[in-house]
Write a structure and sequence with these properties.
Helices cover 39% and strands 12% of the residues. The chain has 182 residues and is of the alpha/beta class.
Length: 182
């Protein structure tokens, strides 16, 4: 029985180590081509998700390196999907400012837009984003020139994100109809 417990503990350690090594790797760039009718030229959009800023596995130096990696792609538009801040039990919490500040490094002519995630406190993420001059969409629609984008709150935040997206999409359809009729 001791032998089994020792082997099991060893397996858990090896799998945990492999998982941690995978978690600290820089992100791989995956390219997709999506055809959108009506675009005059292709758009380069970069999507980041679930950064989970953390002192342990996603420190500010790593976040800055990822932002440099994104900028090297020369995006027209960057969208960042929530969970800017980690909420790990074993990790001393990173300040929300430290988790969000690296996003100020991102550069894109059509802007850098984001939506909150379930790990982001509804009040503080809005406050920190405004403080750094970052654009947070939550049930909002924005026209960035060749396309319109819409953002939603996370379901956990007690909002009604699906209804918010539908309302924003209806506004987009009305605006497009108005432009076509003008």
């Amino acid at each position: 029985m001791k032998r089994f417990a020792f082997l099991f503990a060893g397996l858990v350690l090896v799998l945990g180590w492999a998982g941690w090594l995978g978690a600290i790797r820089d992100p791989a760039v995956v390219r997709y081509r999506v055809e959108l009718a009506g675009l005059q030229r292709p758009l380069r959009l970069v999507h980041l998700s679930d950064l989970h800023g953390s002192n342990w596995d996603m420190p500010q130096v790593r976040l800055n390196r990822i932002m440099d990696q994104v900028n090297a792609l020369k995006p027209d538009l960057v969208v960042v999907i929530g969970d800017f801040h980690a909420s790990k039990i074993w990790d001393p919490p990173m300040r929300m400012d430290d988790a969000v500040q690296p996003l100020t490094r991102l550069k894109a002519p059509l802007g850098v837009w984001s939506v909150p995630g379930n790990h982001d406190d509804p009040y503080w993420i809005r406050w920190v984003m405004r403080r750094f001059g970052l654009k947070l969409l939550a049930g909002d629609l924005v026209d960035v020139g060749p396309i319109q984008i819409v953002g939603s709150d996370d379901l956990i935040m007690g909002q009604r994100p699906v209804q918010g997206l539908r309302a924003a999409a209806a506004r987009a359809a009305r605006q497009a109809a108005d432009r076509a009729g003008a």
